[in-house]
Design goal:
By secondary structure, this protein is an alpha/beta fold. The chain contains four helices and seven strands.
Length: 140
């Protein structure tokens, strides 16, 4: 299960709790439960610009990229935006590459828009591609 350094999840604003609980479900992985936190017309823009409209899209992609992956959720930042409440979740990924090699400390930033108690937009960035290039001996 995902880890969270956020000590008092109940003290988070409602929109951040929705995002936290979504991330917990998505990291199990339980895309059907994760989808209950999302609107029916959600737009998920994943790493590399891949667009999905259901929580199962990123789960299926992650199954190709990793043997398994979890999030160490470090912080949630909340602000009111034009589209709704914006929640940023930052932290690191840890897990195992398909060849069985473990990894940790892979930074991530997820940006969510929450409106009417549901996630309507999600944007995902992380260092996985950079780490894959380095593992293959390609450096900038």
């Amino acid at each position: 299960m995902a880890q969270s350094r956020v000590h008092d999840v109940d003290a988070l604003p409602e929109e951040a709790r929705i995002v936290h609980d979504f991330l917990e479900a998505s990291m199990k992985p339980d895309p059907e439960k994760a989808a209950t936190y999302m609107s029916e017309d959600v737009v998920i823009t994943f790493t590399g610009g891949r667009v999905y409209h259901h929580a199962s899209g990123p789960t299926e992609f992650n199954a190709m990229r990793y043997s398994w992956v979890k999030k160490d959720m470090v912080s949630f930042d909340v602000a009111q935006g034009a589209e709704g409440t914006v929640v940023y979740s930052t932290g690191t990924l840890y897990g195992e590459w398909p060849d069985g090699t473990p990894f940790e400390g892979n930074r991530y930033v997820d940006r969510f828009v929450v409106k009417g108690g549901k996630i309507v937009k999600m944007d995902v960035w992380n260092d996985s591609a950079e780490r894959i290039l380095i593992r293959r001996g390609i450096t900038a």
